Structure formats: C-alpha cells, structure tokens
C-alpha cells in the first residue's frame, strides 16, 4: 500500500512539474550520458589577459575603497587572500582541494562527499571580487586594475574552458558574465573592451547556450540568470559586429518568457524564497541597466508589469529600518551585484535599485543603499513609495499584514511550481526590527540527511505538524510530493484597528489545518483549528534567541521574554495538552551556518482549536 501511494504521489508530482519540463531534463541527461550533447563538442583555448585596460574613468564612488580585500563566502565566512588569488578548487570550510580540475565538467559527479557542498567551490568563482577591484580602481587606487587582471588570468589558467567543477553549472557561468559586464560599466570600458575580455565572454556564452533548455525546465532562477547572460553578452558582441545577435535574441525571448511565466500578477516568484527573489530581481535590474546603456529596444509591457509587481512584493517584505526580512524558503547565499558596504541580509540596495528602475520611485530616503545607484550612474527619484501596507499575493500564497511597527507574514499553500519546503501556514512575525517568530532557512543543499530534512521540513517552521511527518512527503533531494492546496480561505479584512486573514488545507493523508491571523498595533492573535490526524499534532513557535520563561497552568501556556520590547505569548485551548515545553531548535540565517534558538512545542492528541496571543509594550 505504501509503495502504491509513493508511485501515485510521484506520478502526480511529475504531472504538476510539467511533462515537457520533465522530458527536457531526461533528454538532457540522456544526451550527456551517451556523450552526444552539443555542449560536449565545444572547445575554446585558454583566455590570456590582460582583460581590463587602464582608463581615465571618472570615479563613481564617494568613499574610500579598502585596498585589503577578503573573500566573504555566503555573506558571513571571511577568507583572507592577502596578495594572492584564492585557491579556486578549494573548500575553505574543510581545506579539501577538489579533484578533477582537468576533467570535462560533465564527467564530474554533482555531489562528492569529500568536497562537501559544491557551492563552497563555486563561491569564489562568481567573480564578486571583480566588482570590488573595479570600484577600487575608479576610486583612485590603481592597484585595483592590477589585481583585477591578475586574478582573472589566474582563474582562466586554473579553470580551462569547460574543464572542472567551475564549469558544471550554466548559472554559475552566467553570474560570472554578468559581473564582468558590470565591471566594464564601472570602469567605463564597455565601448572599448579588450579583445581578451570579449574572448572570455564568448567562452562563457558557448557554455551557457547549449544547455539553455535544461535551465528553463527548472522553472527557477537558473532560467532568468542564463537568459540574462545571453542577452547581455549577445548584445555586447553584436555592438562590435561580432557573432552575438543570435545569442542576444535568444536571451531576450527567454527572459521575456521567464519573467511573464515565473512571476505572478501580485509579484510572487516561482521559488517562494526571499533571497532567490532578490537574485531574480537583481538580474532583471542589471539587464535593464544594460539595455538603457546601449539604447536597446524595451521589453514588453507585460514584462515590466511583472517586474513592478515583483518589486512591490519584496518591498513589502523588507524591514525599512534594517533591510532584513523573513528567512523565507531556500537561501544559498547568492548575491548578484554586491557593490555596497551593507551586509548580505540587507536587501535595501536591491529594493532601491528595482524601485527606481521599474516603479520610477525610491523605496527609501537617502542612505548607504543608494551606493548601488551611483555605482551604475543612476539618479534617485524625487518620489518615494508609500509605507508598507496589507497585501495578499494570491499567486504565490503570501499574506502580509502591517499594523504600526508590527508585521506578520502568513505562508499558505499556492504551489504553481515545485515547493522547496514543507512550510504551509508558517507565520513569520516581526515587531519593528525584531524577528520574534522566525523561519529556519535552508542551511545546505549537500549535508547529512538529518539536516536536509530538518531545515526543509515542517519541524523548522511556525505551523502544525501531524503524526511526526512532514506536510508533504519527500520524493527526492529537491522534490516534495503531495503538493498542498488551500481549500479554505478567510478573505483579508482591514480596519483602522486590525487586519485579519485566514487559510487552511487538507493534506494527502486527510489531516487538516485552518489558521486565522489577526494583527493589531500591539496584539497578535493566531487561531489554529486542527484535526484528521491519527496520533498527535504539535504546534511550534520558533522564538527569537534570548531568555524565555515558561509557565503552564491547566490548559494555559504563558511565555515571557526579557527582550527590550517586553513580549508575552500565551497559548490556550479547551482540549487537553499532552505536553508543553521549550526545546532547542536550529536556524540558518546564512548558508552553511546554523545556530540554536528556543522553540515552544505544544502537543495534543485530539482535534480542536488552539489560540495563541502575543502582546508587547513598544
């Protein structure tokens, strides 16, 4: 019976993924397996520098750029480089040097236990440092140009075209190309690039183009990144009369398709991830900068409408005081265009850039986030967006409620594309800049199975878990089955005093959960109606790290904190509670970094209603 259910779930999931997409993936892998894929037939010589020339570029930055540069992996892990380029095939977390640097990329396995997470190899090869050295040079430090060329030449020498781990992924090649183009803008060398740089550009385009259909079959940021790289690189080559017109046209067609297909009318992106949303939006923002720089034809009206909605979506998610936002969905540390001094979890530069480009308004008053505008020669708008408001993104299943300094985000199931986490009816709650009730993140894509299942599973979210299982069964490393559907919904009601919204589902085994959230300026109420489970259900509230005091009396749970805003949380129900306890959980605010946090767990074995109330002083 279990085997039959598994195959039924798998068949249904493949149908939801789209038979054309599944066929494209299977065909891609078969062609690689039999060594007949066009990408296996290409050859390019090793590029030799210099790639960027000395120039009398006017400074586009006002502050001094530090001459000492350390690589920062995933926004937090610092790798000193002193005067030397990094070891391009080394995992700095375990000092392991990856083997196979002289093998064709398609002969190297996707996952190698000795290497660990392959992203630790890719991180230094995303060329973030190209932007730093370029800004260093135009700020007056001439050593920036020397280091830029030295590092690029060393990378090319140690990563011959299409050999080794750093050529495995078309998106990684695309990110490199986009950063090279951004550096040429910063250095004011787009109209007279060196032949060596154009040769390196062609090498990357020849890696990206043959596997573009595989990228599109993912229905995620691989498609937007690779289409953008084809458009940017193809248009650049075409300007010089080189053979880039077809690449540019292909990139334009696919980028239009991806934006209109993967971004919903209310702005949700297919991946349901705050960081991947930023990556997609930064990619499209740079494409628009590039298009305007070369005075290329505009994209379609529908394209810009979707990007306007995507900008609004992320602006409503982000705390304007800190630039942080819910730790929603997968977060692999990706960050395109890191040209400001602000931290990785500060999303304001990206929101400001997209707002100016697509909404013709500023999201924020003047601040360090404007550095991304000045870097690319863009002016602030005189108009500013209104304050954050209540918003329902039905296309992706997000309810955003705002009252005073409080913000609640309810994630309800609306899966048009592959879900990455079992997070149905997760509630993220903020009071000012304090993320009081929080998501766990994703930690790593290649780690022990226990951690993989924990961070993407129901246990790591503020929701109900039934019978110690996930809301959706795992069918593969990145594939969940039994996609949930919202079968009940209470529409948004907004008044001057409160905002209320509710949603619910029935899972593949018949358990149900309905959640209603009411937010007032200094009070939050969450009502959870559950049933249909076999043995027990567990309600979890994942709390901001700090000292919490738990008191249990009859069927009332009271939790108080000593954090400055004076928070108290109570849970009450008319049904018996089997257990109420504070346990230690985990969260990953940055990729490959996990830290402890307190989690309130309340266990019941009967259907019924649980009511959680949160109040605070500030």
Salient structural properties:
8-stranded antiparallel sheet; 4 domains; 618 residues; 22% strand; 5-stranded antiparallel sheet; single chain; 32% helix; 23 strands; alpha+beta
CATH architecture of the largest domain: Distorted Sandwich
Strand residues, percent: 15-25%
> How many beta-strand segments?
23
How are the strands of the largest sheet arranged? 13-14-15-16-23-20-19-18
CATH class bucket of the largest domain? Mainly Beta
Q: Tell me about the largest β-sheet.
A: 8 strands, antiparallel
Whole-angstrom Rg: 25 Å
Q: Please report the distance between the alpha carbons of the first and last residues.
A: 54 Å
The CATH topology of the largest domain, please? Beta-galactosidase, Chain A, domain 5
Helix content: 25-40%
The number of domains: 4
Dominant shape: globular
Mean pLDDT: 93
Content-based structural category: alpha+beta
Number of helices: 15
Low-confidence stretches: 57-61
Summarize, please:
With 618 residues, the protein is of the alpha+beta class. 32% of the residues lie in helices and 22% in strands.
């Amino acid at each position: 019976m279990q085997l039959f259910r598994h195959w039924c779930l798998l068949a249904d999931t493949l149908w939801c993924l789209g038979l054309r997409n599944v066929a494209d993936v299977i065909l891609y892998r078969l062609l690689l397996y039999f060594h007949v894929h066009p990408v296996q037939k290409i050859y390019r010589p090793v590029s030799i520098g210099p790639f960027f020339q000395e120039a009398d570029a006017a400074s586009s930055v006002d502050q001094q750029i530090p001459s000492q540069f350390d690589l920062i992996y995933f926004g937090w892990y610092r790798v000193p480089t002193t005067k030397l380029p990094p070891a391009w095939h080394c995992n700095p977390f375990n000092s392991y040097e990856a083997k196979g640097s002289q093998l064709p990329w398609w002969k190297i396995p996707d996952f190698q236990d000795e290497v660990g997470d392959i992203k630790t190899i890719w991180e230094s090869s995303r060329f973030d440092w190209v932007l730093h050295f370029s800004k260093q040079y135009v700020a007056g430090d001439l050593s920036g140009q020397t280091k830029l060329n030295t590092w690029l030449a060393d990378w090319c020498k140690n990563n011959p075209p299409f050999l080794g781990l750093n050529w495995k992924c078309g998106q990684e090649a695309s990110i490199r190309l986009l950063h090279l183009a951004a550096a040429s803008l910063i250095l004011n060398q787009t109209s007279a690039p060196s032949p060596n740089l154009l040769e390196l550009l062609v090498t990357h385009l020849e890696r990206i183009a043959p596997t573009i259909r595989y990228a599109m079959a993912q229905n995620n940021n691989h498609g937007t990144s690779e289409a953008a790289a084809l458009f940017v690189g193809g248009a650049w080559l075409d300007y010089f009369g080189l053979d880039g017109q077809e690449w540019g046209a292909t990139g334009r067609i696919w980028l239009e398709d991806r934006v209109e297909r993967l971004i919903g009318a209310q702005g949700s992106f297919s991946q349901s991830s705050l960081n991947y949303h930023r990556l997609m939006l930064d990619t499209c923002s740079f494409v628009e900068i590039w298009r305007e720089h070369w005075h290329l034809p505009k994209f379609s009206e529908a394209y810009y409408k979707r990007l306007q909605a995507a900008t609004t979506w992320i602006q409503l998610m982000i705390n304007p005081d800190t630039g942080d936002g819910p730790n929603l969905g997968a977060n692999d540390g990706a960050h395109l265009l890191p040209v400001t001094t602000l931290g990785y979890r500060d999303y304001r530069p990206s929101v400001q850039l997209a707002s100016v480009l697509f909404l013709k308004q500023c999201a924020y008053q003047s601040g360090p986030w404007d550095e991304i505008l000045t870097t690319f020669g863009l002016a602030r708008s005189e108009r500013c967006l209104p304050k954050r408001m209540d918003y329902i993104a039905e296309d992706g299943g997000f309810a955003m409620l705002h009252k005073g300094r409080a913000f609640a985000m309810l994630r309800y199931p609306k899966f048009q594309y592959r879900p990455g986490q079992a997070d149905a009816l997760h509630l993220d709650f903020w009071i000012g800049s304090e993320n009081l009730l929080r998501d766990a993140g994703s930690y790593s894509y290649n780690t022990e199975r226990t951690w993989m299942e924990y961070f993407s599973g129901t246990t790591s979210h503020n929701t109900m878990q039934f019978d110690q299982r996930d809301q959706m069964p795992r069918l593969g490393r990145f594939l969940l089955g039994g996609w949930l559907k919202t079968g009940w919904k209470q529409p948004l009601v907004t008044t001057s005093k409160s905002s209320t919204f509710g949603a619910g589902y029935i899972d593949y085994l018949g358990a149900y959960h309905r959640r209603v959230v009411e937010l007032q300026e200094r009070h939050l109420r969450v009502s959870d109606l559950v049933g249909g489970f076999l043995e027990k259900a567990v309600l979890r509230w994942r709390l901001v790290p700090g000292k919490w005091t738990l008191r249990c009396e009859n069927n009332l749970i009271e939790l108080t904190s000593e954090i400055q805003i004076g928070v108290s949380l109570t849970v009450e129900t008319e049904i018996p509670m089997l257990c109420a306890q504070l346990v230690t959980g985990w969260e990953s605010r940055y990729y490959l970094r996990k830290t402890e946090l307190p989690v309130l767990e309340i266990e019941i074995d009967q259907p019924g209603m649980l009511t959680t109330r949160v109040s605070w002083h500030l």
